[in-house]
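User: Can you predict the 3D structure for this chain?
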Amino acid sequence: MSRNREHEFSNLVREIRKEQVGNGPREITTRFVDTWAVSEMKGNLTNVEKFMITSPEGKRMVHEARTELVKKIYDCSDIRDKFEKLVHAKIIRVFSDINIEEDVAMTTFVFDRKLGDKLK
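Assistant: Here is the predicted structure, written as structure tokens:
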């Protein structure tokens, strides 16, 4: 798959985040590595979340909410279908985390086949 497909994947991630969370990341880069699609997102936090993370309890709450919310988003079969149709592979699992201090999130999608192969 070309860089164009990675760009399309990034756009889909942004669209879904915007739809589900209310805002999408400011910057997103996706790379396909074997059976993985790894998306790095910068500029994720809302102004309210930025205010909340000024306290230790706020940091914990924002981190927990962001990681759990993302996992729930990708549990939705309609959302998974969009990604699977784009790359012609099935999602096996999704890993996600966010570094609150740096406002950088990573989501790794694991598919059932190598993503760099040409589409059949």
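The beta strands are 27-33, 36-42, 91-99, 104-111. The mean pLDDT is 92.
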